[in-house]
Amino acid sequence: MLLAVDIGNTQIVVGLFDGERLARSWRLASRQDLTSDEFRVLLGGLLGASSTNVHDSVVGSVVPALTAELARALEELIGQPSLIIAPGVRTGVKICTDNPHEVGADRIVNAAAAVHTLAAVRGPGEAARPIVVVDFGTATTLDVVTAEGEYLGGIITAGPSISAEALATRAARLARVELTQPPRVIGRNTVDSIRSGLIYGHAALIEGLLGRIETELGEPVRVVVTGGLSAVIAPLLSRVDAEDPGLTLRGLSLIYHRPRAR
Q1: Count of domains observed in the chain
Q2: In this structure, how many other beta carbons lie within 10 angstroms of the beta carbon of residue 100?
Q3: What mean pLDDT is predicted for residues 138-154?
Q4: 241 is a catalytic site residue
Q5: Interior CA angle at 101 toward 226 and 94, to 5°?
Q6: DSSP class of residue 88?
Q7: Whether residue 132 sits in one domain with residue 30
Q8: Could you tell me the pTM of the whole model?
Q9: Does a structural domain hold residue 223?
């Protein structure tokens, strides 16, 4: 079995693959002071008896301070080094940005998974189209991949959780709110008004950016959404071609199984 780990700024997502099937997944809080010993205890507890069946691991991380600690824990737990997604690893995605080394591992992994996902569901004779991957994480990212599978670049903006925290911190009379869909766009109380701005406002932001991306490309795109808040915001978007909360984990598994020099 393969253990895939996606280290984000807010959450660490762990997936256990049995072949190509995502058998189990877990979400942990991401703390920058986690040590290799803590990682080993956490992962060992999650896996339980399954840990003896895990023979390899793959890691994508946007938190450098945690990457080495996790790699050390996984090597002790599994008995061999992890594949760390970093510059030089073959992902199947050609990066066409000004500086390919600065693109986060999660964004490239998502692009690889989205290309594979949409190719699998494309109808006979249907032409490939550019893809926009929308990842609703701590930051919301929109990543653009051409029909030929080339990563063009994308957009990074503050996610709803960051906006909610900023409102509660900077505005004395505004409280922290749960990031759920309010009953209506026009809030009838302060809490629903804040939630409307955060949720409906974010959906409108994504719709507007998708339109501008299509104008710049000169052709329509397919939209793939993922991330912790995708279940809340995706239903508010006018078109979503695929929604997959486990997209990043699947991308890690796909890259792991590509031919490579390790």
Answers
A1: 2
A2: 12
A3: 93
A4: no
A5: 65
A6: T
A7: no
A8: 0.88
A9: yes
Both structure tokens of 133: 């991957």
In one-letter notation, the amino acid at residue 235 is: P
Distance between CA atoms of residues 79 and 15, nearest Å: 18
Residue finishing a domain among 84, 115, 138: 84
Mean pLDDT of the chain: 90
Strand order in the sheet with 83-84: 21-29, 11-18, 2-7, 56-61, 83-84
60, 119: one domain: no
In this structure, the answer to whether residues 22 and 104 fall within a common structural domain is: no
Same domain, 140 and 227: yes
Which pair of tokens denotes residue 26?
């877990």
Q: Say if CB 112 and CB 91 are below 8 A apart.
A: yes
Q: What is the pLDDT of residues 9-64, one digit of tens each?
A: 888 999 999 998 999 999 998 888 899 999 999 998 998 888 888 999 999 998 98
Q: Which of 6, 56, 106, 244 is catalytic?
A: 106
pLDDT digits 0-9 by tens, 176-232: 888 899 999 999 999 999 999 999 999 999 999 999 999 999 999 999 999 989 999
- Boundary-marking domain end, from 29, 50, 84: 84
